[in-house]
Amino acid sequence: MNVRRSAAALAAAGVLAAASPALAASPSPSPSTVLPSGLYGDTDPTYNGVWRQSLALLAQRTVSVTPAAKAVDWLTGQQCANGAFAAFRAEPARACDAKVMADSNSTAAAVQALSALGGHEDATGKAVTWLKSVQNKDGGWGYAPGGASDANSTAVVIGALAAAGERPAEVTKGDRSPYDALLKLALPCTGEGAGAFAYQPDKKGALTANADATAAAVVGALGAGLDATAAESGKSDKGAGTGCAESDPLTPGQAAANGAGYLAKAVAADGHLTSALAGAPEQPDYGNTADAVVALAAQGGADRAAKPLAWLEQNAAAWAKQSGPAAYAQLVFAAHATGTDPRDFGGTDLVRALNATGPAPQPAKTAEKNDDGGSGTNVWWMVGTGLAAGAGIGFLLSSRRKQQL
C-alpha cells in the first residue's frame, strides 16, 4: 500500500533498485517516455502506473470529487481482454500477450477504484473473474499468478472482492478462503512480534512480523478495502485492546484485533513506524504509518489511531509532495478512516494537492436531493410558490382594472 509495496512489486519483477523507502519516489521518466495525459503523477509509470492511478481515483471518490473522464478512461484502457491489469501498459491498444505481467495488486486496486466510481460493472466483473482464476490452493494470492500467497496481495484482493459485491469468505479454492490464507500468516501470541502478520513464510516456514503486511492484513481480515472507515465505538465485537488473545480456532476478527494490538505498540513510542534497507539507518516510514492509521481506525475506532495520525499531520507533507499521487491518496485514506478533514491535514489541503498531480477533476455540481425534504424539493417548492404568488398578484391586478372600468 505504499512505497514498500511498490518495492515488493519491483522485486517480483526482478528489477528492484536500492532506494530509501522513507522518501523514495518512482524514477523520473526517461526522455523517450511520453506520459499519458490522463495519468496521475509525472514519474515513470512502468511499475506503479495502475496502482497509483487507482489509489488517486479512489481517494478522490472518498472526498466526493469526480475524477476527470480521461483519467478514468486511462485506467479502464489498461485492462486486458481477460480482465487482468498489469502495472502499466505503454501500448494499451495492443492485445495483452505472455509478455504482459498482469498482477493481483494492480487488478485489485483497479477494481476498488472502479467499483467506487460506479458504472464499470463489466470491467470489474471481468477483473474479479480473473482474480478468482489465479487464486492459490491455500485461498490466497501472490503478487504474480502462481506466486506464493502473501498477506498484502491477499488483503488487497479481499478489498476488491468486497467492493465488487462479492462475499470474500465464499470465494474459495477447494475449501480454502482468503481468510484461511491470511490466518496462516498470523503470528501467535507468544514470542517476538506477537499478534503481527508476516508477509510470507521464510524458506523454513517461519513467520517474521512485518508492519506493512500487518496493516494490510488487519484491513483485509475485517473484509475492508483501501478506503476503510473507522469501527463504531462500542459497536465492534472484534476487540480493541493492546494485548494479544488466542482463540481456537483463530477467527479473522481476533486476528485483526491481535494485529492492531501489534501496530498500536509499534507506534506507541514515536507515533510512527520505522523502516530501513540493508546498510541504511532506521528512519520514519510514512507510507506504512498511514496504512497503520487506517488499520487501527478500522479495527478499533478513530481514537486508537490518534497518535500516528497526529504524527502524519505534522510530518508527512514533504514525503507526499515528493512521492506523488499514491502518497497523497494514502494520507486521504488515513484522514477518511479517522474522520479528519483532508482539506486541512496539518495545514495541507490533501485534496487540492492530489488533484494537482493529474488532470483536473470535473467541476462540482450542486446536489439535488430527493423529495424527502432535501434541497432539490425545497428549490421546486420555492419555484412553485413563486409562480402561485405571481398568478395571484396578476389576478388581483386584473380584477382592479375591471373594477375601474
What does this structure look like?
- With 405 residues, the protein is an all-alpha fold.
- The chain has helices at 3-12, 49-62, 69-77, 104-117, 121-133, 151-163, 178-183, 211-221, 252-268, 286-300, 306-315, 317-323, 325-338, 350-355, 375-404, and strands at 273-275, 283-285.
- The protein has a two-stranded antiparallel sheet with strand order 1-2.
- The longest helix is centred in the C-terminal third of the chain and has 30 residues, at 375-404.
- It is globular, with a radius of gyration of 24 Å.
List the helices and strands and how they pair.
Layout: H1 3-12, H2 49-62, H3 69-77, H4 104-117, H5 121-133, H6 151-163, H7 178-183, H8 211-221, H9 252-268, E1 273-275, E2 283-285, H10 286-300, H11 306-315, H12 317-323, H13 325-338, H14 350-355, H15 375-404
Antiparallel strand pairs: 1-2
Keywords:
405 residues, 47% helix, 2 strands, single chain, disordered C terminus, mainly alpha, two-stranded antiparallel sheet
Strand order of the largest sheet: 1-2
Q: Count all strands and give the number.
A: 2
Oligomeric state as shown: single chain
Q: What's the tally of helices? A: 15
Report the order of strands and helices: HHHHHHHHHEEHHHHHH
Largest sheet: 2 strands, antiparallel
Gross geometry: globular
Q: Portion of residues in helices?
A: 40-55%
Radius of gyration: 24 Å
- Briefly note the structural class of the backbone: mainly alpha
Distance between the termini: 83 Å
Mean pLDDT value: 86
Percent strand equals: under 5%
Low-pLDDT sequence parts: 6-26, 234-240, 366-371, 373-405
